[in-house]
Design goal:
The complex is a heterodimer.
Chain A (H helix, E strand, L loop, with lengths): L2 E6 L2 H14 L5 E5 L10 H11 L5 E5 L3 H12 L6 E4 L3 H13 L4 H10 L7
Parallel strand pairs in A: 1-2, 1-3, 3-4
Helix pairs in contact in A: 1-4, 2-3, 4-5
Chain B lengths: L1 E2 H17 L1 H11 L4 H19 L4 H15 L4 H14 L6 E2 L1 H19 L9 H16 L4 H19 L22 H20 L2
Helix pairs in contact in B: 1-3, 1-9, 2-3, 2-9, 3-4, 4-5, 5-6, 6-7, 7-8, 7-9, 8-9
The chains are: A alpha/beta, B mainly alpha.
Chain lengths: 127, 212
Amino acid sequence: MVGIVVVSHSQKIAEGTVELAKQMAADVKISAAGGLEDGSIGTDVSRILAGIEAVQTGDGVVILVDLGSAVMSSEMAIEMLSDGSNVKIVDAPIVEGTIFGAVQASIGASLEEVINVLAGTKSYKKF
Amino acid sequence: MATKAEVLDFIRIYADKMAEHRQELTDLDQAIGDGDHGINMSRGFKAVMEKLPAVENKSIDEILKTVGMTLVSTVGGAAGPLYGTAFMKAGMSTKGKEELSNEDVILAFDEAVGGIQFRGKAVRGEKTILDSMIPAIDAIKASIKEGKTMAVALVEAEKAAWNGVEYTKTIIATKGRASYLGERSIGHQDPGATSTAYAFQAANEVAQKAGK
């Protein structure tokens, strides 16, 4: 199963997004990597690294990010993996992307399929 | 050249400066960014100071890599991956060294700035760290090439870094959160360029103390 990591500057956003996604896809491999260890606002490469390792089954991992250093910190975490070739940061809205990604992953979609669906969430119309 | 003791001294003095100028860096960031640069840098270097005793007897590359790894996990903002990459790259270029020749110092700076450019996908003139770092490194290279000592080179480097900081007031930010402000970022001094200038100030102070 494709794993999902939610990277936000805010621990609450990351955990809340994971909570929402689990409501749709309870058995999905998903982890929250939000904020710093002490709970303050920021992104932490080692928390992201641990988040990836927690959900990697070999089928690949997508990372959803909020903004700014979330991207740079995620890139660094991927570089630190012995093989980060199937770990991808996707440019998608963090909440909607996580939910759609979780649903796709839970029905057994491949990494490529999950990435394709997430690419479409940028133009998703809410009403 | 630089001994291991001087490298450690540089890290400690830089950490002190990040604590001392915490409010100033935060105020600069509040004007054009998310207002956390001073808080983030002082938190990161406080964590570095806690880690330093465990590695201070190891080789210079181990020390620099530990600084980098600590920063990427504790700074929190974009400065974490940027400064973290700089220290890690500098570390990789000094593998196994117990002291650094002038050539080693220049290589470490080159690797550090290359790491920042790679990580931030920025070039000079975008109101970033690079606007004080690149001129400072160029000044070191020019001075050493003229046969001057590292102590003299670092005086020139600090001067060039602060000139770079002044230059950031005149340009538009196109990277990071300051870029959301567009032209309104003109007139403001870049916080990242400023925290980098303090690194060269710290290096300069270490060199003057060593007198070489």
